[in-house]
Amino acid sequence: MRFLICGLGSIGRRHLRNLNALDQKDVVLLRTGKSTLPEDELAGNPVESDLEQALERWHPEAVIVSNPTATHLEIAIPVAKSGCHLLLEKPVSHSLEGIDEFRLAVQLGGGKVLVGFQFRFHPGLQAVKRLIQEDVIGRTISAHVHWGEYLPDWHPWEDYRVGYSARKDLGGGVVHTLAHPFDYLRWLLGEVSTVSAELGILGDLDLDVEDTAKVTLKFKQGPLASIHLDYNQRPASHWLEIIGTKGTIRWDNQDGAARWWSSDEGSWQQIEVSPGFERNALFLEEMRHFIEVVSGDSLPLCSIEDGIRALEIAVAAHQSAASGQRINISDL
């Protein structure tokens, strides 16, 4: 099958490497020429600079949208209309503007959309989901996510202030860039009813977007969740804790394991990830799944509607911080 990658920053190049690793060599690149990374690993792939021409000339079956967040829909809408399948990097966009048009384009084109929330492919979080489904901690009462990383450490080859994560005009800020917990908490605990948040530019990074966020979610089935996000913490820390009526589940991204304490057992137990597990395994498994979606063998694990739900939470967090009010998701 033929793939078109739109956006060749670090994540676009990771997708290219993983396609090659999965023996998918028929890849066309849509480039703006703004990447600060070396050209070597892109050699040998056809390059286009105009989306319409790329679609007409190459007729790709699948398109990977990995350009900056604020420009996702500029690519995704015409691609969806053409009937291609999409792997759309998270978040779907930086606002809800254009979302209805995108939905309609997908319906008319008939392709499938996989949204790139790769933590759904983490074996530790998949174990957490199984533990919840198996009722090992009883009824879920609350959850907390903590995720802090020092932004300048992400792409040491470039000035962090030029990347999309640091720029308001490209859809940056911790709420959109570190949006994964909005997706995986909803995946684990169900639909969100209300969102409240406080956002701030509190660090010394010279940004025009929030570098710190505290977000509270109320779920329709009852649980409360609090989420801390920041661009400032050193060393990086990303973990999840879920409290139930009969015990507690913990997951830590540092070692990937899922741990739980059950009142029935009275001790901590854990499910470890495979030896040698590393971060790219999430992206590789995501790409393997996308190939199955394109082939018609699987439905997207993270669908267009899943991606839109996560975006609604992010948008509600911004609205709440701006207004000082709790936001009902149903009002968006």
Describe the structure in brief.
The protein is an alpha/beta fold and 332 residues long. Helices cover 31% and strands 25% of the residues.
Question: Any overview of this molecule?
Answer:
Helix content is 31%, strand content 25%. It is of the alpha/beta class and 332 residues long. The chain folds into two domains: 134 residues, NAD(P)-binding Rossmann-like Domain (Rossmann fold), CATH 3.40.50.720; 176 residues, Dihydrodipicolinate Reductase, domain 2 (2-Layer Sandwich). A hairpin with a 5-residue loop joins strand 12 and strand 13. Helix 7 crosses helix 9. It is globular and about 60 Å long. The two termini are 38 Å apart.
Q: What average pLDDT do the residues reach? A: 96
CATH superfamily of the largest domain, by name, is Dihydrodipicolinate Reductase, domain 2
General shape: globular
* Strands side by side in the biggest sheet: 14-13-12-11-7-10-9-8-15
Q: What is the first-to-last residue Cα distance?
A: 38 Å
| Total individual domains | 2
Give me the number of helical elements. Answer: 9
Tell me the radius of gyration: 20 Å
